[in-house]
Every structure is written in C-alpha cells, then in structure tokens.
Amino acid sequence: MDKIGDKLGITDDLKKCLGDDYKKFLSIVYFTILEDKSPLYRFGKWNVTHRHPHGKDIPSQRSSELLMGITQRQIDHFCQLQSKHRQDNEYLLFDTTSISSYSEVLKQAQYGHNKENDPIPQFNLSLLFGEKSQLPFSYRKLAGNIPDIKTLKNLLTELDFLGHKKPKLVTDKGFFSKENIEDMFKERVKFLLSAKTSVKLITEQLKNVYSEIQQLQYYNNSYQLYSKTIPAIWEIGRQKKSKSSASHQKHRVYAHVYYDIMRMAEKQN
To answer: Is-contact 195 232, C-beta < 8 A?
Structure first.
C-alpha cells in the first residue's frame, strides 16, 4: 500500500492537503481496505498486528474527530491535485448513482427517481474517474431530486475547476435536452450526444434520410449498420426587451443517423 500511495501520488497529495495528520488518515485508509467489514473502534487491535504509516493506535473517538474535521476546501484541493495526475493521457468518465436513505437529518436526501424504484428519499453521488487508470479523482454529493439531465452544468463547472478548460463531452440520452445543448454552445464546448428521436430537429432528419439510407454506399460492414451524417442547424431563440421581436443564434450541428435493418425486421415481425 505504501508503494501504491507513492506511485499514484496519493501520499504526497494527502500530505499537501492534510498537513501533519496525513499519516493518521493513511492508517485509517489502510485499515478500512484490509478490514472492510470491521468498525473503526477495532483499530486498536489491528494496530498491534500491522505496520502502518502512523505506527500508533488511533482511538475511535479520535478517528471520528479526524474524519468529521475534513473540510470541503481540503477535499477540493485533493481532487485538484489528483486530477493533475490524469489530465493528458486518458479519457475521463462521469457517472451518477443514487443512494437511498432513511435519514431525517441529511439535507440532500430528497425524493427522486432511481433504478430500483425505492419509495424512500435518496441522495445522488457523482463521480469522475480515469478511463485507463480506473481511479476516481473527484466526487460530489447532490440532492436526490436532481436528475441526470440537470447535472451537466455542474459537471462543466467541476471540469473547469479541475483545470480541464476545453472538454469534449460524449453522453447518453440521459443528458440530452434543449437546455443542455444551448448551455454547451454558450460555453463553446464540443459534444456528441445520443439524441432523443422525439425532438423536432431529429425527427426531420430521420424523415429526410429514411428513403435512401438503405443504399449500399451507406452500409458499414464492420458494424453491420447503415449510417449517414447530415449537416443541420440548431437555432436558439432569445427574447429581446421588446416582446414583439426575438433574436436568434444559429449553430451548425451534425446528425449521425444509424439504421439497423435486423432490428427493424424484428420490430416489424
């Protein structure tokens, strides 16, 4: 674990963020990894039989004080330092998950929608991690009533804070909305979104291409799909002070249309 901490920069980053207490935190981390089902009050017994950075017992009350004393500023500083280790040589992955809770004191526990359909309050956890390293370097707790579609603006703010000034986003349909697209145009962020076919612009492109997409020149043998890319215009309407007039911003976009003839046959059948 010492080697891992040195190699990944975790030890140095904790030292910069936590000062003289960093060895105590490392020892607590070692304990929670090796004794994942044991509560922290058993640290004293574990201390007798193991070598660890602090080298001494950490009473249960003291460990609670240490953990409760971590500030958001320290967390942010640690995330910034960890981000620098994974800035240039890998893709960054972002995901959210919901955690149900019966707690009556957590402000972020709100009624929302989760995949398990639990009828109790929840809070959401967002996570950024490296695609090659599979290591997390930033997380946020969010209110449980915030859907994925609303978290994109927070993600752009987080990436900017971590030093990723010009990200290129690739997302699933959960992040597709008119507001998100217009926010990304505003921030000059390049993006590739899985689109919802109910959107008027997408419906129009599908109608335009449907009659010809089954032609041989559009067939991709590697993926066994027909595909075609169509230039289009995304128009943003903005009301002026005068209600009678509106100005519009137009942005070029590209609709990538894919047609799976086997799935179509199954659907028709």
So the answer is: no
